[in-house]
Amino acid sequence: MDVTCGIDWAEDHHDVAVVDSDARLLGKLRISDDAAGFQDLLRLLAEHGDNPDDPIPVAIETSRGLLVACLRATGRRVYAINPMAVARYRDRHVVSRKKSDHQDALVLANILRTDAKQHRPLPDDSELARAIAVLARAQQDAVWDRTRAHNRLRSHLREYYPAILEAFAGKRERLLAREARAVLAIAPTPAAAVRLTHNRLKSAIKCSGRQRRIEAEAGRLLAVFHQAQLHQPPLVEEAMGRQTLALLAQLDAACRACEDLARDTEELFLQHPDAEIITSFPGLAVLTGARILAEIGDDRTRFESGRDLKAYAGSAPMTRESGKSRRVSHRRIKNSRLAATGRHWAFSALTASPGAHAHYNRRRDIGDHYHGALRRLFNRMLGQLHHCLATRQRFDETIAFAAPVLPPLTKAA
Question: Which helix (H) or strand (E) element contains residue 361?
Answer without folding.
Answer: helix 354-366
